[in-house]
Design a protein that fits this description.
This protein is of the alpha+beta class. It is 49% helix and 17% strand. It contains 11 helices and 8 strands.
């Protein structure tokens, strides 16, 4: 089973599937797949029984649909063709709209808002109460010296001892088969064949797992919090990193336009200046977002 999952991961194109899937491209390719399967079926039916033609058409369409599901499209060059030749009104039908300009300050505000979460959980207040953050003398917050040093030490422990034990502790488990997928633009972790999360990079993953290990002793009712809430607290801390959790280089906040199939999206990102590891990323509203 794991071999099949590994094979599918190699074939899958995250840039064009999942949240990045472009439905105009998917629709066009499904129509082309149906047309191609139909033509193939008719051709076979002309030289063999009609039932054989139908079977061939069904198999051809099924294989084409599987390729589209895994890769986002079947016909090479679809993203470029769709972007160049689909009229704006048709892209609008699928929820694509032209990007509006965003300033870096606005993008940073939205990135912080994304890390703050929603509902009754106030990430910054929780982290202040846990002694992980403190006012820095202005209107901003920063990591406390004590938490910063312990966080760095715990990340180093993960690098030295391996991730598996820390991840299982984070999930409240004593055993399980841990698998990782390190395939840009994401890093994913799975336990017993079930994906439990995706991060911008392995260093971002390690930073979250190390932070969660420290927060477990600082946040009341940590084990009762849903995993998504715990993830919000850990990810929120990454916005306050000053150096790369991988190489120790300086971090920079910026916005960039990321191509995603036939549309583009604006993201706010924290990236290491030295090793270019992506530490944090969130989509900015107002891009060709769905």
């Amino acid at each position: 089973m794991s071999s099949l999952a590994t094979l599918l991961d190699r074939v899958r194109r995250p840039r064009y599937t999942g949240e990045n899937r472009c439905w105009p491209c998917t629709t066009v390719n499904l129509l082309l797949a149906a047309l191609g399967a139909g033509v193939l079926g008719v051709g076979v039916a002309n030289i063999a029984p009609a039932s054989a033609g139908g079977a061939v058409a069904a198999v051809a369409f099924a294989l084409s649909a599987a390729a589209i599901a895994l890769r986002g499209y079947l016909v090479p060059g679809t993203p470029t063709l769709t972007a160049n030749y689909f009229p704006e009104w048709l892209l609008g039908v699928f929820g694509k709209r032209e990007a509006t300009e965003e300033t870096t300050d606005t993008a940073q505000t939205e990135a912080e808002a994304a890390a703050t979460g929603s509902g009754t959980l106030d990430v910054e207040e929780e982290l202040l109460a846990a002694g992980a953050l403190e006012p820095d003398g202005s209107d901003d917050l920063s990591l406390t010296d004590e938490f910063r040093e312990r966080w760095r030490a715990r990340i180093a422990d993960l690098e030295r001892e391996g991730d598996d034990g820390f991840l299982l502790d984070y999930l409240g488990r004593t055993e399980g088969e841990v698998e990782y997928t390190d395939k840009r633009p994401f890093f994913a972790a799975a336990v017993d064949g079930h994906e439990i999360g995706r991060w911008e990079s392995r260093p971002a993953f390690r930073a979250d797992i190390a932070a969660a290990d420290l927060l477990a002793d600082r946040v009341d009712g940590w084990t009762r919090l849903p995993q998504a809430r715990r993830g919000q607290l850990a990810a929120g801390l990454r916005l306050f990193l000053e150096t790369c959790p991988d190489c120790g280089g300086p971090l920079s906040f910026d916005t960039e336009t990321v191509p995603s199939c036939c549309h583009q999206r604006e993201v706010a990102a924290v990236t290491c200046d030295d090793c270019e590891v992506r530490v944090f990323e969130t989509e900015v509203r107002g891009s060709f977002a769905e």
